[in-house]
Amino acid sequence: MGMQEEAETAALAFEHAPVGLALTRDRVIERCNARFCETFGYGADELAGRSLAALYPSAEEFQRIGEIGRQKMLDTGRYADERIMQRRDGGLFWCRVRGQSLTPEDPFTRAIWSFADISESRPVVDLTVRERQVAAFLAEGRTNKEIARLLNLSPRTAEAHRARLQAKLGARNATELVARLTGLPV
């Protein structure tokens, strides 16, 4: 296979990947594939040059997740999580996100990201920003004390958020709540 053919094959693989892919520079989309556009509800030409911030439920979450991701990518060059993202029409959905820095010394300078819509196995309920933050940490297996420390809350406040999440998701206990948050069968 010649270099031209390899380049064409790579371009086809990127464009037709079964998950959304985006090549970013400083958290701005340079290029994305058809599945990425479909997932977020945009046309093919609408996302190039736009900040990833447009795909988050809030500017605060874009900032917070960015800080967490930058630190993790400085350590390993990679980042992965499951979080709530926002479609063009404002609809929220759970998304599995994976990132690889192409510039490890400054992780967001150039990076490649995959975005997979996992909303079929994990429905979204109406949550506040803080409840989404607590939910994400619970899905990671964090304790109430760890969540309180990470979010600069009292342990009682973290527990209150967890209790509200349990009620909103119809979970009888913490184990069932985590199962609902992670999409595992209950």
UniProtKB/TrEMBL annotation:
Keywords: DNA-binding, Transcription, Transcription regulation. InterPro entries: PAS (IPR000014), PAS-like_dom_sf (IPR035965), Sig_transdc_resp-reg_C-effctor (IPR016032), Tscrpt_reg_LuxR_C (IPR000792), WH-like_DNA-bd_sf (IPR036388). Residues 120-185 form the HTH luxR-type domain. One of its GO terms (biological process) is regulation of DNA-templated transcription. GO terms for molecular function: DNA binding. CDD domains: LuxR_C_like, PAS. The keyword DNA-binding applies. The keyword Transcription regulation applies. Pfam families: GerE, PAS_9. SMART domains: HTH_LUXR (SM00421), PAS (SM00091). This is HTH luxR-type domain-containing protein. It comes from Thioclava pacifica DSM 10166.
